[in-house]
Write a structure and sequence with these properties.
It contains eleven helices and ten strands. By secondary structure, it is of the alpha/beta class. The chain has one domain: TIM Barrel (Alpha-Beta Barrel). Strands 1, 2, 3, 4, 5, 6, 7, 8, 9 and 10 form a ten-stranded mixed sheet that branches. Helix 11 links the parallel strand 9 and strand 10. Helix 5 packs across helix 6. The longest helix has 16 residues. The two termini are 28 Å apart.
Amino acid sequence: MLPLYLERLTLLDLKNRAEQLLELQKECRICPHECLAKRHDGVRGDCNSTDEIIVSSIASHFGEEPPLVGTNGSGTIFFTNCNLSCEFCQNYDISHSGVGSIITTEQLSLAMLKLQNQGCHNINLVTPTHFTPQIVAALSNAIEHGLEIPLVYNCGGYESLDVIRALDGIVDIYMPDIKFLIPDLAKRYCNAPDYPEVVREVIHEMQRQAGDLVTDENGIARRGLVIRHLVMPSLAENTREVLSFIRHEISQDAFVNIMAQYHPCYQALEYQEIARRPTMKEYAEAVEYARKLGLTRAEGH
């Protein structure tokens, strides 16, 4: 199975998509904030970024979901900054403090090729939202020089529907978080009260494009949707909302990673209800609820 960008699109198609996305970034409407920052002129948007690509790390990674990691690892590119302001962010040094280095579009394309040459099973773009135009531009150059492994869009779920539609035929594997489906929680912890509405529409579109996760004969992910949900303390109702949404509106066979690794980071200690790890009981109840719903590919990690 070829990556979608080779199967469905020409290099001209990709360059046209990059130009379309770059136009959205001039007065920035790349994410639902639509902050209108003139990022090409050096103005920082709500994501704290101009149009210069900033990356914190590039490496083969073995801590992702097993279908992504396989035997040789997932080729992760961690982008600096974020379009969400999560009070509990576990990568706050990267997402909030701006740790990273500026690279060019050409350097980004070379990084993709290097990861492929190391044997990685995919190119895993971590927190890519605010640099999507630059990523698509780099992808064109990488393809011209032989890139041929799947592209993973690993995001927080707060995406522009127009941008996700522009990625149709480019992204093989969408891997969004679904953080909150209760608006008060999204406002309190992410300063994004519209997050539930946004993420619902976005997940529907990702599922329409990619479908349920497809793996090859070795169990390596080739195409599809992988959904993550982080179990947080005291928020069982939200977790049930998320799992019910996936089961009833997306797919019974959706690949869902119910994550257990929450611990209070960044500003989380200022919120008493999330200033602790979830208990084993809270996590076990989340997994059991997924089973009761009939989510056949819900897994705990």
